[in-house]
Amino acid sequence: MTAAIQTTNLCRVFGALAAVDSLTVSIERGEVFGFLGPNGAGKTTTIRMLAALIAPSAGSASVAGYKLGKDDQQIRSRVGILTESPGLYDNLSAERNLAFFGRLYRVPDLESQVDRYLKLLGLWGRRQDPAATLSRGMRQKLAIARALLHEPEILFLDEPTSGLDPEAARLVREFIAELKQAGRTIFLCTHNLEEADRLCDRVAVFNSQLVAVDTPAALRYRLFGRKVVFHLLSMQPVFKEIASAFDFVQNVQVFENKLIVTLEDPEKKNPELVRALVSAGAHIQFIGEIKRSLEDIYMQLLETNRGTEAAGDINGKNKTVVEEKHG
User: Fold this and answer.
1) C-alpha distance from residue 178 to each of 37, 194, 199, 269, 300 (Å)
2) Per-residue pLDDT reduced to its tens digit, 79-107
3) Alpha carbon 146 to chain centroid distance?
4) Considering 214, 243, 264, which residue would you say is the last residue of a domain?
5) Beta carbons of 143 and 82 less than 8 angstroms apart
6) Residue 51 in contact with residue 75, Cβ under 8 Å?
7) Distance separating alpha carbons of residues 85 and 73, to the nearest angstrom
């Protein structure tokens, strides 16, 4: 099966600025792919290229099996886009907004399709109201309905919950999760890293160039390892020595009555470590794991990347760490 999106050295230059520089990535069908980066990193420019709205300056890409620059009309008909600013027609009702865009996409059985998405997104009761009178959350939901109306294979979402109240944001996240279960391919740009951690199969950290791409769990392990905390009734020096002696243990720290152990595969290795500690007289009250957030991962990767770029500038060249894992 071909990838839903495949790019090779994709670039977009505006004057002297390389907004997107040599992007190479493969996104599988049915995958929710998070595209994370600071403002101005080139995320929206990437979406606009992949949706065949602007042409790349260099490189190549295929979207839904069609070649960018050659099959642009086919690509546009098979993708849906939610931009950060919905861009609705304020004087038209919610229903007429959807009908207008549905006619552009030549959606079959348009009336029933409009009704379906108005109901799915909780807008049925406001279907006759002008878009200008809808709350920001409702306008965002209407824009999502517009992006889905023609049943696209691939959905590009640019900050789908930005500025929404908690209730509206939760509804949008739940709807994205439903689309994921239905097998849609979703390219998600968001600054809400908790949201990305919850929804995405893989995430890419991007700052005009690709810094890293992998599952959140794999990135956590790569950067921070797995840290298990053994809460003991009392601490003895021998406990650290015992834990450090195991081959699968990478590091051991002591903090008050806590033994903080960095190790491989805690689910399999913890029982062996527990048995050894208990045999040595340790009274283990409970065990927990230090969980690094996706925000921790994101900040660490960007900081490392900035340091790499600075070193590259000193040596007269730029270097970027790019690692991929396809599973």
Assistant:
1) 25, 18, 10, 36, 31
2) 999 987 778 999 999 999 999 999 999 99
3) 22
4) 214
5) yes
6) yes
7) 23
Q: What is the CATH number of the domain that holds 161?
A: 3.40.50.300
pLDDT bin (cut points 50, 70, 90) of residue 221 is confident
- In residues, how long is the chain? 327
CB atoms within 10 A of CB 183: 10
Structural domain of residue 230, as residue ranges? 225-327
> What whole-number distance in Å separates Cα of residue 34 and Cα of residue 301?
15
Instruction: Check: CB of residue 158 under 8 Å from CB of residue 43.
Output: yes
Cα–Cα–Cα angle for 253, 254, 255, rounded to 5 degrees? 120
Q: Cα dihedral sign for 309, 48, 7, 151?
A: positive
pLDDT for res 326: 35
Judge if 168 and 187 occupy the same domain: yes
Residue 248 has phi, psi (to 5 degrees) of -80, -5
Structural domains of the chain, count: 2
Q: Cβ of 4: how many Cβ atoms within 10 Å?
A: 24
Residues with Cβ within 8 Å of residue 16, at least 6 apart in sequence? none
Of 193, 214, 235, which closes a domain?
Answer: 214
Query: What is the CATH number for 289?
Result: 3.30.70.100
In this structure, the strands spanning 202-207 and 32-36 are parallel
Q: Classify residue 261 by its DSSP letter.
A: E
Distance CA 175, CA 198 (A): 13
Rounded to two decimals, the pTM is: 0.83
Model confidence at 318, pLDDT cuts 50, 70, 90, reads very low
Question: Which residue, 64, 77, 68, 75, is CA-closest to 30?
Answer: 64
What's the confidence (pLDDT) of residue 115?
95
Quick one: 187 and 246 in the same domain? no
Residue 68's φ and ψ, nearest 5 degrees, are: -65, 135
Q: What is the DSSP string of 286-303?
A: EEEEEPPPHHHHHHHHHH
- Cβ distance 140 to 160 under 8 Å? yes
